[in-house]
Design a protein that fits this description.
Layout: E1 15-16, H1 23-26, E2 31-32, E3 36-41, H2 47-60, E4 65-69, H3 74-81, H4 88-93, E5 97-101, H5 104-113, H6 116-125, E6 129-133, H7 136-139, H8 145-161, E7 165-171, H9 183-188, E8 191-200, E9 203-213, E10 222-228, E11 231-234, H10 240-248
Parallel strand pairs: 3-7, 3-8, 4-5, 4-6, 6-7
Antiparallel strand pairs: 1-2, 8-9, 9-10, 10-11
Length: 249
């Protein structure tokens, strides 16, 4: 008698909600748990809002979150986020949110030390979601592509060791992007989302595209999105024609 061999079921990675309305639908549930994700967009595209919305979603689910910034000043940043109903000061007092001002040079030192202050905060506070906003200045510390590549590898190795779902932002115009300074970061990322902020005649419009997301059958279309009183809302319908018209202007 020949025994039938059962095929082993491949367990799909757990997904973490992005907190962005309709984005989870086009990414099969959001980001993979403990993944490292890159959001690329030009100035005014909504990268920081996207990042905080991702963290606030975690806090709603009982997670503790860390926001690392190279550029933002705490009081002004907290004040701006109140426009979306996100009281980060209150969340901080409750021990759910940590704001950490850092410098690109400190990140470079962190790589040499293997963790540094950020790792201490993550372990002591039991952080499960982390944002680094933005990684642009850090990438500029390295002139040679090989050095950038090695630094990106080290940074991502450390981030993965923390077992957090991480989001890094990068300021770059997605329309004009090429295999330039961000290529090392892009190669190491588990997912890449592009936020477009393009002029259409008299005003600018916003679009989002999922460039890659490992292990996910994500949409390859371009979707309009708006920034409203509760944050980012991605349209349920893609609009490639509108996007191409805007880009070609």
């Amino acid at each position: 008698m020949v025994k039938k061999i059962k095929k082993a079921k491949i367990k799909k990675q757990d997904k973490i909600s992005t907190g962005i309305e309709n984005l989870d639908k086009i990414t099969e549930g959001g980001f993979e748990k403990n993944s490292v994700n890159l959001v690329i967009g030009n100035s005014g595209s909504g990268k920081s809002i996207f990042a905080v919305q991702f963290l606030v979603e975690g806090i709603k689910k009982g997670e503790k979150c860390l926001y690392v910034t190279f550029e933002e000043k705490k009081e002004e940043f907290y004040r701006n986020m109140l426009d979306f109903g996100w009281n980060l000061s209150e969340m901080e007092k409750e021990g759910k949110f940590v704001f950490l001002e850092y410098t690109p040079e400190k990140v470079k030192t962190m790589l040499e030390e293997g963790g540094g202050i950020i790792e201490s905060v993550i372990l002591n506070k039991k952080i499960s979601r982390i944002v680094i906003d933005s990684i642009t200045s850090f990438a500029l510390l390295f002139e040679q592509e090989l050095d950038k590549r090695e630094a990106a590898l080290s940074l991502f190795d450390i981030i993965r060791k923390w077992n957090c779902t991480s989001l890094l932002t990068l300021e770059e115009d997605p329309v004009k992007r090429d295999a330039g300074s961000s290529s090392s970061l892009e190669f190491e990322s588990d997912s890449i989302l592009l936020l477009y902020f393009v002029r259409c005649k008299e005003e600018r419009e916003r679009f989002i595209e999922v460039l890659k997301m490992r292990g996910t059958k994500h949409s390859t279309e371009v979707f309009p999105f708006e920034i409203g009183k509760n944050g980012i809302i991605v349209s349920q319908k893609s609009d490639a024609a509108r996007f191409l018209k805007c880009v070609s202007n």
